Amino acid sequence: MRYIAIIWFALCGAIPAFGQIDRMEYFVDTDPGIGNATALNITPGNSISQEFTVALANQASGHRVIYVRARDTQKRWSHTQAHSFYVIMDEASAITATEYFIGTDPGPGNATPLTATAGADGYIRFVVPLTTAPTGFHTLSIRSKDDQGNWSHTQQHSFYIRNVEGSPNIVAVKYDFTSNAVTYEPKTHRVLKPDTPVDEEFAADLSDLTENQEYDMRVWAVNGEGVRSEMVTKRIKVCANEPVIANFEFNQAGAQVSFLSSSIGVSNYKWDFGDGTPIVTDPNPTHTYTASGLYSIKLIVENDCNSDTLVKEVNMNALSVQPALTADSLRLICYPNPVENEALLEFQVPVAQQVSIILHDMVGRKTLVVTNKRFQPGKNHVRLSLKEFQAGIYICEIQGESSMKSIRVLKL
After folding, report:
1. Residue 224 and residue 95: Cα distance in Å, rounded?
2. Which numeric CATH code is attached to 5-87?
């Protein structure tokens, strides 16, 4: 098969007097004449960064050249940019090996192999040890091999190693915001416990930003010598309201199930009961099932800021029998929620058993053991103190002898 090439070009018309770019076109190998090549779908502007695909089904194996050019609103064309590539006709379907080297190329198959796998975004992230590399400029090279034994072109990235005296620990996290070509003043968060690496939650200062508007947030770390890390960018939305958090409990009585939402900051509810019936928008609905089975209940809650989804399962395999409480019937409620300093956790156990309640942060780290002892049947209460905790969302998990449930708690 012949692959589809994904090409990225940046063309700039930096002088406003020349007019905006209003057309881009490309061709492979043979020039059909200005204005007659394949047009690209672009948004006119002074600077265009465009990613596009080129179908190579009709191209023979071998070296090829793709050409790209642009035209401004005054009908003047740019110089034509050229990019060489190679078409391979084979049945390759998967990458089987990836390797890297620094400096001198040891030859394909002889460099340092990568064992890391691609993340959800398709990128492979890996750490290159530099303990023996001297100070100065270096070149990192990386390439891959497919299941037909073909090696890719070698990609290269230059970097500089400097001697850093003293602690390399990260001492601060800096961030700024950009929107519509405007960059706002950078802000600094001082790390509570300097270390490397640092995994720490903090509340970003949004006081300069306009509510109900989207921004690009750029974040980078700084160590004790003032050396910066690479910058990470993420799209965010600044909201006038608190972010919405979905949560609910339910009670079964024969074929009827009553749902009780304990969600936070909700404007709109959407209940999907998993049996093909229409979506229900009541905050605390009651639903009657007509057939046995295991159903997935989906609650989607929304406000002007965001939406959140929570899915739980309800077992309706014995519709004619009023279900009795069993050792799997655990309930956990936190009030108030959101929590300013302290809250009361109410939970119900159907039989005497050992119960633990543990608080986790959003990355799964255990932050507090609220209780871990034996409780008697019925309703029980324990106090939750969050005075020393940073603002954010936490997972409160109750674990019985044969079941577990969790709820989300918002610390103000």
Report:
1. 40
2. 2.60.40
CATH topology of domain 239-323: Immunoglobulin-like (2.60.40)
Write the CB contacts of 234 (distance below 8 Å, at least 6 apart in sequence): 216, 217, 219
Indicate the pTM of the whole model. 0.36
**The CATH number of 325-412 is which of 3.30.70.1230, 2.60.40.2550, 3.90.600.10, 2.40.50.140?**
2.60.40.2550
* Alpha-carbon distance values, 368 to 140, 180, 358, 361, 389 (Å): 43, 43, 6, 9, 10
Give the distance from CA 307 to its chain's centroid. Answer: 15
Cα dist from 184 to 175, 217, 313, whole Å: 10, 10, 45
Return the residue matching tokens 């006081």: 207
- Which amino acid would we find at residue 337? N
Nearest to 86 by CA among 2, 27, 9: 2
Secondary structure class of 91 (helix, strand, coil): coil
Structure tokens that stand for 324 in this block: 């009795």
Residue 129 has pLDDT above 90, yes or no: no
Q: 323 falls in which pLDDT band (50, 70, 90)? A: very low
| Domain 239-323 in the same topology as domain 171-237 | yes
- Residues paired with 308 in a beta bridge: 301
Task: Say if residue 306 is exposed, middle or buried (CB neighbours under 10 Å; 0-12, 13-18, 19+).
Answer: middle
* Domain 171-237, CATH: 2.60.40.10
Distance CA 20, CA 4 (A): 30
Beta bridge partners, 55, equal none
State how far the Cα of 361 lies from the Cα of 366, in Å rounded to an integer. 7
